[in-house]
Amino acid sequence: MNKNLHASRETSQPSNLIDLAIQIQQIAAPTFAEGARGESVRGLFVKENLKDVSIDSIGNVFARLPGKQKKARPLIISAHLDTVFPASINLQVALRQEEGKVVAPGIGDNSLGVAALFGILWFLRERKTELTHDVWFVANVGEEGLGDLRGMRGVVERFDSHVIGYLVLEGLALGHVYHRGVGVHRYKISAKAAGGHAWSDYGQPSAIHELAALTSK
Question: 200: exposed, middle or buried (C-beta count within 10 Å: 0-12, 13-18, 19+)?
Fold first, then answer.
């Protein structure tokens, strides 16, 4: 599916948030190769003076905004780093000012979501909001395709159910709240058939044909 995405410039942080989303989008981050983008986000967390900034063994980036009560359950706010686009894709940004849009590969999924981690932080600080609990900001890996949600699985393994909740940010879903989990089942299917070679096995069923027939069903 083509994910050349459009992000509206009409936000509460029209310059900072969108500029940050573009900055993040300019760093290639295909699934399993999110390292450079993760390091960039780690540096941004450090500049924001957040606590306990770290990157785990699979590439998830963590940072903590302290609350007043040390033993209170934290809120986890996450956004995935990876994009469906390969490292070879042209990441050039097109600004359509007449439409109020920014157009670029992966700008909405999920560069805008990652930028929104900082948007929430800025919102809390501007209003001098005092929290009783910690807020953990997490930029996780492996959300797309064969990543099989491995980053978020690692986040949940770390915090388990000892949290207020998990808030997941998706750039294409800003303005919408989904309050029920979507189940995911992945299957690996192998097929073996009598045919295969187009010449020597001519006329015999091919495993490719069998798999194609299966997917069409």
Answer: exposed
